[in-house]
Design brief:
This protein has 172 residues and is mainly α. 59% of the residues lie in helices and 9% in strands.
């Protein structure tokens, strides 16, 4: 069943599904423009589209319906709620995925800002892992696992992994 669906079923978004996903994505982008919040990027939109297509594919349909879009929007909302819920049960998009500590979030923000400054000075937004580590060390930043920090910056689209131990600083 799964092999058949993968091989023969290639759903396309219906206009209604496209509109639903687009509207939800634009609402997310509009609501989370704070400098210190986790960015909402095209990766989230692409994820919504892939999830909607997968839902239609699971039912062997060639068209992604508005219902599929509604379902994946609920999944995304649940995921965001789990990530950004504060201690009082409210949504706080200023919370970083790095953890809830403000000093750690502040360190991450300063680190990314320093990378942007280096990029502007050198006209180069490519960094090796060693360059990133050296920058963090020069700034006296201490992380329990620097690789985890780099992975999280990659997941949040601040850094884009371009190869083994090679990263590109994203520009926003």
């Amino acid at each position: 069943y799964v092999a058949y669906a993968r091989k023969y079923v290639h759903p396309k978004l219906s206009p209604a599904a496209t509109q639903k996903l687009k509207q939800f994505y634009l609402e997310l982008r509009q609501g989370h423009r704070a400098v210190d919040s986790t960015p909402i990027t095209t990766r989230q939109l692409e994820a919504l589209v892939r999830l909607a297509e997968a839902r239609a594919r699971a039912e062997l349909r060639e068209v992604v319906t508005e219902s599929d879009a509604d379902n994946v929007i609920e999944i995304m909302k649940y995921s965001l709620f789990q990530t950004y819920e504060d201690e009082e049960g409210m949504m706080d998009f200023g919370r970083s995925q790095m953890g809830t500590g403000t000093s750690r979030a502040s360190d991450m923000k300063r680190f990314v800002e320093r990378l942007h400054k280096i990029s502007e000075e050198t006209y180069n937004n490519m960094f090796t892992y060693d360059m990133l580590l050296r920058t963090a060390t020069e700034m006296n930043l201490r992380f329990s696992s620097f690789q985890d920090v780099i992975d999280k910056l990659n997941n949040q689209s601040y850094l884009l992994k371009k190869g083994p131990r090679s990263y590109q600083l994203a520009t926003f």
